[in-house]
Amino acid sequence: MKRKLFFVLAFFWLNAFLWAQLGFAQAQLTSPTTAEIFKQFSEQVVKIEVVESGSGAKASVGSGFFATERGQIVTNYHVVSKLIHSPDRYRIDIVAASGQMGQAAVLAFDVIYDLAVLRIDRSVKGFLKFETTPVAQGTRLYSLGHPQDLGLTIVEGTYNGLLQHSLYPKVHFTGSLNPGMSGGPTVTHAGKVVGINVATEGEQISFLVPAARALSLLEKTANIEKPSTANFLAEVGRQIQANQARYLDGMFSNTTPSVTLGPYSLPTKPADFFRCWADALRRKELPYVVISHDCSTDDYIFVSSEQSSGIVRFYHQLLSTEELNPARFFTLYSSQVQAGNVALFGNEEEVTPFRCLTRNLQTQGGKLKGVLCARQYVKLPGLYDAVFRGATLGARNVGLVTTLSLSGVSFENIQTLTRRYGEAIRWRR
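^ thats the sequence. predicted structure below, dont judge the formating
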């Protein structure tokens, strides 16, 4: 009886194994090759050239793809941002895989998620559809685009889910995206769009805007034929202003965690989308110690090649000594207060010069010398960059320099956040 049972189980195991092998072989036979995927879906992918009207020269190159039968093209906002900011200076040319060219108009854009929808007035042979069902981690994907304007290219990679602790959802794509592929599609073997190419950090680390965000923007453009370019910058400003509440409300409130540096209690990691790092400079030949604590957002909103919004960074630096007398320590500490300016990009066409205000502030347990500097966005009224720097006063052998920088926020939010930030700096007893 036992011998019979053994042969029955062996038969079923062998049968299951053979069926599994057959299924694997069938999958190998039915799954299209990369070459077949390229041949089948490349005609729906286009090159986007932003052309300087006066010279007729290409100012930038990106990618996009047909997403509806009406000739709507999905791409990134940053690919067409030059036209958004200066519609009188630039135009958008579309180059299809066949070599056909035509001009496109911007129907709508989403600055926050770096997307844009264009429209070209000519017949479209086909378009790509979006994947609306969950994708398993490890699924093989294929990205298409025009890297470095070298011609249409396909890149294999894998789906690794949405980034964790990110303010703006992004798909982690393990594959080599390169400049020029921005705005192109990343598809499954069936040609369903999983995400839109948006950024890379090199070393096979790339990011996609989830397909759902593009679908949402496409729905908003269903009845738009050709919007007025005069409203583009106003819409950029409106979207950025509306987005601020998402990440600034509650920041540096009473629930913000704290970190201890010497005699001070200081704010750290005010939200999950911050990353914080710490280090110390301790050398036998130096008569002082420097301890640093740095927190910043990984996310940012591309506004233009010279401007970003949504960046929040703060930096604590503790300087202490057991060897220097008060006069020498004060000289050292003063030089530290003056150093370490925060780099914020922007030219005179986009931002005004910084204007600064200096005050001595009474915080919980001690005094703080505070300097607040702000500059206004020229083309986007109501938005500012700001840097707040504070330095503790009164100690003989220890001092703290702390800096908070904000990009693309309202002046009301600058006032609110710097006040909260100052209040979160406390002296330990």
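Confidence is low (pLDDT under 50) at residues 5-12, 22-29.
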